[in-house]
Design a protein that fits this description.
The complex is a heterodimer of chains A (about 240) and B (about 90).
Chain A: E1 2-7, E2 9-10, E3 16-17, H1 19-30, E4 34-35, E5 48-54, H2 58-71, E6 75-79, H3 92-96, H4 106-109, H5 117-126, E7 129-133, H6 148-163, E8 169-171, H7 179-188, E9 191-195, E10 210-214, H8 227-243
Parallel strand pairs in A: 1-5, 1-10, 2-3, 4-5, 5-6, 6-7, 8-9, 9-10
Helix pairs in contact in A: 1-2, 6-7
Chain B: H1 2-31, H2 40-54, H3 58-81
Chain lengths: ~240, ~90
């Protein structure tokens, strides 16, 4: 079985975990479970864990990357390509100061709140981080004015050109897609991910998608692996499978 | 006196956490091709974990930490040969 956890920022607030919480969580997971990345072999009869972080805020490079190196575990980082700068000399405090919901807005982009290409390349080359596409501009892909080719296909090409590595995974921004979008995604990526609030039986399940469990605001290091959440995971697995997504 | 005992137990727990992490790291490295003849490194880590329970002096804990750090350096060294740099675990200071 595969549990894929979704995190956003290392901070205080709704879409975040504190540095202590995330370290406690990583320590707990690293000593008990097999940590895998999309495409890795899933150990049978064991709980496999995939750690995924969305949006690529600078706090991933600043706080999470050192923890991955410390515990020798791997994680996936999904980035919206449009907001990535080449490099920056801005100090970490300025970059970390941008609130979660504001990062993609113009006035805050000058603070370089996202990882730069230079930082993404370093993390990708380290072997600890796999970079996924989180589209080009993080728009709702169901909106009429969205250029799907740019969001899904071009974003992959840009990352591959910048990092010199194949991008295998697309993470739906805001979790929004339909059958046509999903077909286009599967034509260009091996794996796609959305929030599904359940476990996975394989990387693709029946619907060619990996489900993730939101793991922001953790109250304890093993909150998402207790018995009670599993009851809801089972329910959501059947619901997702039945809905065909 | 009680708080000293609690602190000592907490240190033991932190060391056990690190030993668990090292065992997991070692297993991953062996899966990826690192040599551990006769599972010697693995058995040493298991022995260290077993010993912790019966230890009641700082000196003995220091000895455990020192042996564990040697193994940690072995694992880090092997990972470096695979192009992966790492950061040392946080070990308790006694």
């Amino acid at each position: 079985m595969l549990l894929t956890f979704l995190y956003h920022r290392i901070d205080e607030g709704k879409y975040a975990n504190s540095k202590k919480n995330i370290e406690d969580n990583f320590l707990h997971l690293a000593k008990k479970y097999k940590i895998v990345l999309p495409g890795d072999r899933i150990a049978l009869f064991k709980t496999n864990i995939c750690l995924t972080f969305d949006d690529g805020y600078f706090d991933f490079y600043y706080f999470v990357f050192p923890l991955l190196k410390k515990y020798k575990i791997k994680a996936q980082l999904a980035v919206p390509v449009k907001y990535i700068e080449e490099s920056t000399s801005l100090d970490p405090e300025t970059r970390l100061s941008v609130p979660y919901a504001e990062g993609m807005k113009k006035p805050f982009l000058s603070k370089v709140p996202f990882c730069t290409w230079e930082e993404l390349k370093e993390m990708s080359d380290s072997g600890y981080v796999s970079i996924a596409s989180h589209s080009y501009s993080h728009k709702n892909l169901l909106d009429d004015d969205v250029d799907l080719y740019l969001e899904i296909v071009e974003s992959k090409k840009i990352i591959e050109k910048k990092l010199g590595k194949e991008v295998t995974t697309f993470v739906y921004p805001l979790g929004k897609f339909n059958d046509e979008i999903h077909k286009l995604t599967l034509k260009h990526y091996k794996y796609s991910m959305r929030i599904g609030s359940t476990f996975n039986l394989s990387w693709k399940n029946i619907n060619n998608i990996t489900y993730r469990i939101i793991s922001d605001n953790l109250k304890s290091k093993n909150e998402k692996i207790k018995v009670l959440p599993f009851i809801s995971y089972i329910w959501f697995y059947f619901l997702n499978t039945f809905r065909g997504r | 006196m009680e708080s000293k005992n609690v602190k000592f137990l907490k240190i033991k727990e932190d060391i056990l956490d690190n030993l668990d992490i090292l065992i997991f790291n070692l297993e991953n490295c062996v899966d990826a091709g690192m040599l551990d003849d006769g599972s010697a490194i693995y058995n040493t880590l298991e022995d260290l974990s077993d010993q912790i329970n019966s230890i009641d002096t700082n000196e003995e804990l220091e000895e455990i930490i020192s042996q564990a750090k040697i193994i940690e350096r072995q694992i880090d060294g092997w990972m470096a040969t695979q192009g992966q740099t790492s950061i040392s675990l946080t070990w308790p200071t006694l």
